[in-house]
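User: I need a structural model of Aminopeptidase P family protein from Hellea balneolensis for a docking pre-check later this week. Nothing fancy, just the predicted structure tokens so I can convert them on my end. Input:
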Amino acid sequence: PAAIPGGEIKMLGFHTLTLAPIHRELIDISLLSAEETDWLNRYHEQVLQKIGPLIDKDVQSWLRQACTPIGG
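Assistant: Understood. Predicted structure tokens for Aminopeptidase P family protein:
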């Protein structure tokens, strides 16, 4: 986890409720920090691991492509 200024104060956080690939054409990769790129790649890995086994084989190939890690 990244260090957060004021992180010593107890606060609420967020958990992922839905799992779907984030469409790459909507992402300006040049604006992402290394931490954001890592988060996106970990999120897509989670999507692939949890959703992949539940869908048809032909859709799995699309999902693998949609969840391919991005460079950073």
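Before docking, keep this in mind: The mean pLDDT is 90.
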